[in-house]
């Protein structure tokens, strides 16, 4: 069952009035295979997703035909297929948000000597890295495109929680499910969320990963009827010894202003 914070965060997405069940099931199967560490059989997938086995098999066979999954004909087990790699490459090259964000990330990485990322919420409870730029130094924090994290992780999570603007009681359950190397207590985390809401950016100084500072700013998009939401963010990642004082503040302000520019650009593209 989704927690209230994740349900509320999902309300900013386009409302789906009449989903196509077969498409939903195909997506669920792809996500399940993506989360598995090994090829899996039809019955295991069907049980996990509560799909009739014969229906599950038909969907898997169709996905296999189009290269989205790959079947081991001997073991009769499935895993993700190579066509998804081409889709990922095409998405990076053709998506307006990724293209626009990449230029921003390249500039910020160069100016502030940090690794930069753009993330997009995947579903209701995960974010995925869709673009990155490496710090132009001999030593930098490495992040892979396609990496997935809980939606409330680190400074990016502060931004998404701030955008949701829910009662603190609703935030406790998803907060307690997060993994931190140096976990804050709940009240301290709420203070970080409030800071992000008030200042337009968030900072995690070594809580998610010890010795690593993450600075982030949310990208807000108009959804409908004057309502805005946030499903994307940009961030800078560097060593905590490097990111402090004036350097930290300069990065934060740059991310904030850049996120605001992307927000305006993205909102205009929906008009």
Folded structure, characterized:
48% of the residues lie in helices and 22% in strands. By secondary structure, the protein is an alpha+beta fold. The strands form 2 sheets. Strands 6-5-4-9-8-7 form a 6-stranded antiparallel sheet, sandwiched between helices. A 3-stranded antiparallel sheet has the order 1-3-2. The longest helix is centred in the last third of the chain and has 25 residues, at 245-269. The protein is globular and about 60 Å long. The protein starts with a helix and ends with a helix.
The strand count comes to 9
Main β-sheet, spatial strand arrangement: 6-5-4-9-8-7
What is the CATH H-level superfamily of the largest domain?
GAF domain
**Residue runs with pLDDT of under 50 for 5 or more positions:** 1-14, 224-228
Helix percent reads 40-55%
Tally of contiguous helical segments: 10
C-alpha Rg, in Å?
20 Å
Q: How large is the share of residues in beta strands?
A: 15-25%
Q: What is the ordering of alpha helices and beta strands?
A: HHEHHEEHHEEEHHHEEEH
